Amino acid sequence: MALPKGRARHLQLGRRGERLAAKLLTVKGLELLTRNWRCRSGELDLVMRDGMTLVFVEVKTRRHRGNRRPAANLSSRQRQRNFRAGELYFRRIGQPNLVYRFDLVEVVLDRRRLVDIRHWPNYWSSQFAVIK
């Protein structure tokens, strides 16, 4: 079944933002472990390693329209889903002796051109629970 044209464009925009975010973070020295890791709780856009820190990255991509930042669309509910997905990922890999954090990367595009990209390390804390 084909996706509606607008939905397909939205997904392409998101994938492009994730590629740009992964590139930025790799240049900053982080190691990409996986992309689009899915589980029953949700999806982790990028999972990376920064030394001895496991980094769960949410990527928000928008077209350049007005002054609204991509992060404005990151709801509390989405942060909770990401935390649960991070917790499951952590358990799946055998609960290694690593600390973890949740980062955000905002990507703003104007047609084919990158307008802005911002990395927010530790954008939100693990206020929802403690990974055990």
Description:
This protein has 132 residues and is α+β, with helices and mostly antiparallel strands. The protein has a single domain, classed as Trna Endonuclease, Chain: A, domain 1, CATH 3.40.1350. It is 30% helix and 40% strand. It is built from two helices and five strands. It has helices spanning 5-27, 76-92; strands at 31-39, 42-50, 53-63, 99-110, 113-124. The protein has a five-stranded mixed beta sheet. A hairpin with a 2-residue loop joins strand 4 (99-110) and strand 5 (113-124). It is globular, with a radius of gyration of 15 Å.
Write a brief caption for the model.
The protein has 132 residues and is α+β, with helices and mostly antiparallel strands.
How are the SSEs placed, and which strands pair?
Layout lengths: L4 H23 L3 E9 L2 E9 L2 E11 L12 H17 L6 E12 L2 E12 L8
Number of domains: 1
**What is the strand arrangement across the widest sheet?**
1-2-3-4-5
Secondary-structure element order, N to C = HEEEHEE
Give me the Rg, rounded.
Answer: 15 Å
Main structural class: alpha+beta
Termini gap: 40 Å
The CATH topology is given as Trna Endonuclease, Chain: A, domain 1
Features:
132 residues, alpha+beta, Trna Endonuclease, Chain: A, domain 1, 5-stranded mixed beta sheet, 5 strands, 30% helix, 40% strand, globular
